[in-house]
Amino acid sequence: MHDALRRSLPLLGSTALLATAAAATGCGSAGTSPSSGGSGGTVAAAAASSKTSGGAGSGGTLVIGMTAANIPPLDTMLSGTQGYEGYRFVGNQIYDALTRHDLKQDSAIPPLEPALATKWTAAKNATAWTFTLRDSVKFTDGTPFDADAVVFNFDRYTNPKSPYTTPALVAQSATFVGLVDKVTKVDDHTITITTKAPDSHLPEDLSTVFMASPSAVKKDPKNFGTHPVGTGPFEFSSETQGQQLTLVPNKSYWGGAPKLDKLVLKPIPEATARIAALRSGAVNWIEYPTPDDIPSLQSGGFQILTNSYDHIWPWVLNTSAKPWNDPRVRQAANYAIDRDGMATNLLHGTAESAAQVAPRANTAYDPANDIYKLDPDKAKALLKAAGFPNGFTTTVEYPTSGSGNMIPGPMNEALQKDLAAVGIKVKLKPIEWSTMLGQYVTGKFPPGIDAINISLSFQQESFWQLAFSSTGPINLGHYKNATVDKLIGEAQTTVDPTARGDLYKQAAAEITKDAPWLFVVNDRNPRALAPSVDGFVEPKSWFVDLTSTWVGK
Q1: What is the pLDDT of residues 273-301, one digit of tens each?
Q2: By C-alpha distance, which of 434, 439, 445 is closest to 478?
Q3: Using an 8 Å Cβ cutoff, are 351 and 313 in contact?
Q4: What are φ and ψ of residue 460, in 5° steps?
């Protein structure tokens, strides 16, 4: 829709992709409930928060083993180049945005709340937004945060001729600010953002548009990422490239200083290496412990936390070419797979079956849209009606690892087996995660590939336009539905988040029926923490708040 559809995605996934966080009402399963499923390795008593000692503790060093292959670049938007894990552990710690989501609770989809802006209002047509800025905030180098700082940062994101930007920064920020026409200073603590077209969810999308210190950027524009300066809860201390990033608390943080003494981030992309590091004490927190290792970690006293969030692990199908151009074929595939069995038996409750496009922890989720279940006979009948009584052969590309991808090899092999049972013969082609990301943002399938498996997030509301509009730049499968286009267009001009969520629910119903994707599972964001880690709340989000976390003896 309009210029918004020319915006490109950074990410993905914890891709989480883009990811994501969108609104604040209604969801499926409760975050504090144990994961469901069978015995023998299913996550037992999974929780959405670490043990708590009444909030009395403080101090310690938190060492996190990330799934990322490297330390993400440290310059604002570029923190997303390792998937949304870069935003989670780097961007949201060093920097603040004008808005953010409430990540201190685990029971509801995190609502949008004030950050560097204390309030905002929209013109009726959603093409002009006025933001009131928080007073008396300073960047960690002492530079005041004010309207001039906001104007400077937006110019850096949107003006390719700025001496303080880079082509990569402009390209990546286009996902979130591609509709921004100009940012005007009203007074020291008020700015107006004018957009090129209606942009009803601009405040949500701005939650990852981070503010950098203008003084620090101007001092060394080309190397700002080696000495990043923001207003966030933590500040840069040191980096050993490819090995470790060390952050320390911002003692003057406007939201209250973090309880930790130090935060250390380590990229450990190999799951077995992460688990070994946790067991040895080299780290005291790891992202995505493999499902098979969770029971032994629990018996060893480690904390296992999970919660729903707005993630989906699908196959994106090429709907512009045979055989996936026929909706009956796409529906057949969705009836052929045992997503419940995958969530329970293979992933042991660390994921939930996805019977529709909208994740459970997304405002667009409606249980009435959960229309797919395992029904091989129905799948065969649909294939026969579509002219494929003996099935067909198709090639699927999938990542070998990466942010939000869980255990992609075994998962794709399970799908391969299910689909073979109804005549769909799948050739699996593994690929490195970062290479797939590069392919995905081009909006084109690689030669010889009929579908790609990729971890995606609805974290940013703009994902609906980008991925499902008929002209969306990352509508990789070339999906087209006039009703969906109309609903997404209406959502773009609907400022009220509840009403906008209802429009997305209607769009989700249409998309699910058309099945442009193979809907498989929703990740539950599992992580393992040492017994000494305290005070952390696992929200219904890919992002986290580490300000209340501390590490005991």
Answers
A1: 999 999 999 999 999 999 999 999 999 99
A2: 445
A3: yes
A4: -100, 130
DSSP letter assigned to residue 525: -
Give alpha helix (H) positions in 288-386: 294-299, 327-336, 339-341, 376-385
Measure the CA–CA gap between 65 and 264, rounded to whole angstroms. Answer: 9
Residue position matching structure tokens 């599992």: 526
Write out residues in the chain with pLDDT < 50, as ranges: 1-41, 44-45
Print burial letters for 431-452: b (CB count within 10 Å at least 16), e (below 16).
Answer: bebeebbebbbebebeeebbbb
- For residue 409 the two structure tokens come to 């090899």
Closest Cα partner for 198 from 20, 3, 18, 23?
A: 3
Q: Which residues pair with 392 in a beta bridge?
A: 424
Distance of CA 317 to the CA centre of its chain: 21
**In the numeric block, which tokens belong to residue 343?**
């969530």
Q: Which long-range contacts (CB under 8 A, 24 or more apart) does 262-265 make?
A: 262/60, 262/61, 262/62, 262/237, 263/61, 263/62, 263/64, 263/93, 263/234, 263/546, 264/61, 264/62, 264/63, 264/64, 265/64, 265/66, 265/71, 265/89, 265/90
What confidence tens digit (pLDDT) does each residue in 518-545 have? 999 999 999 999 999 999 999 999 999 9
Residue pair 308/360 in contact by the 8 Å Cβ criterion = yes
In 417-549, beta strands by DSSP E = 424-431, 451-453, 456-457, 459-460, 517-523, 527-529, 533-534
User: Residue 380 corresponds to which tokens in the numbers above?
Assistant: 């065969």
C-alpha 41/C-alpha 295 separation (Å) is 6
Q: Which residues contact 158 (CB under 8 A, 6 or more apart)?
A: 170, 173, 177, 180
pLDDT one-digit tens code per residue, 146-195 = 999 999 999 999 999 999 999 989 988 887 898 999 999 999 999 999 99
Q: What are 420's two structure tokens? A: 């073979």
> In sequence order, what are the beta bridge partners of 457?
311
For residue 107, give every residue at least 6 positions away whose Cβ sits within 8 Å of its Cβ, in sequence order, or none. Answer: 30, 31, 32, 48, 540
Both tokens of 210, joined, read 């981070």
Chain segment 93-114, per-residue pLDDT in tens: 999 999 999 999 999 999 999 9
Query: Chain centroid to CA 267: how far?
Result: 18
- Residue 429's region, left for phi above 0, alpha for psi from -120 to 50, else beta, is beta
Query: Do 178 and 7 form a contact (C-beta atoms < 8 A)?
Result: yes
Burial of 377 (0-12, 13-18, 19+ CB in 10 A): exposed
Query: What is the SS3 assignment for 193-234?
Result: EEECCCCCCHHHHHHHCCCCCHHHHHHCHHHHHHCCCCCCCE
